[in-house]
Amino acid sequence: MITTRFEYVSELIQERRSVFPVSYTGEKVEEKTIMGILENANWAPTHKLTEPWRFVVFADDGLLSIGEFLANHYLEHTPSELFSEDKYKRTLSKALKSSHVIAICMQRDAKQSVPQWEEVAAVACAVQNMYLSCTSLELGCYWSSPKAIVDAKEFLQLRPGENCLGFFYIGVPEKGHQAKSKRSAIVEKVRWRRG
Predict the structure, then answer these.
(1) CB atoms < 10 A from the CB of 36, how many?
(2) pLDDT at residue 93 in the model
(3) Residue 43 is part of a domain; what is its CATH number?
(4) CA 38, 43, 44, 45: dihedral to nearest 10 degrees?
């Protein structure tokens, strides 16, 4: 039984998993829920309050457009001897099985007042907030970073200084879906210095 906020947040963090669109029902998540998830993303840590995260949300017919963009990018950038029709179809269907797909973007601070890696880290923290929000709502989600992100500027209509860091898929998982994971012991990754 959870009795403290620490126990609650620990359980939430440890239950967080990537759940892939193949396990989604295609059911739609309410727009206000998506906005709530993005509001939580907006509260990520940000050095000098640059707030570098930017999002492009694909819903409804937009899901077909993002699916076609990613599938066609795969088609156009894969040598014929390595091309897989099955992968092409899977790439297209990932978006269509999702409720929403969110392009994860980073707006570089025009003054470059912090190093770029800090801006990337801030966006990653925002995405972790999205992951935890989805977990609390029992929604499936995952962050994908396909090769297409380097060519997505025009498709996403990004502004100067914006870059795409990936796509965040959100969907309602099939009933009974259990994503499992494990981690090696933390003691193997920690060194203490006391003097």
Answers:
(1) 13
(2) 93
(3) 3.40.109.10
(4) 160
Q: Which residues contact residue 40 at a Cβ distance below 8 angstroms, ignoring those fewer than 6 apart?
A: 129, 130, 132, 133
User: Is the distance from CB of 38 to CB of 170 less than 8 angstroms?
Assistant: no
Domain that holds residue 116: 16-175
Residue listed under structure tokens 């999205």: 130
d(CA 17, CA 187): 22
**pLDDT over 90, % of the chain:** 92
For residue 24, is pLDDT > 80?
yes
Tell me the sheet residues that pair with 102: 57, 168
Query: pLDDT, tens digit, for every residue of 33-92?
Result: 999 999 999 999 999 999 999 999 999 999 999 999 999 999 999 999 999 999 999 999
Q: Amino acid identity of 66? A: I
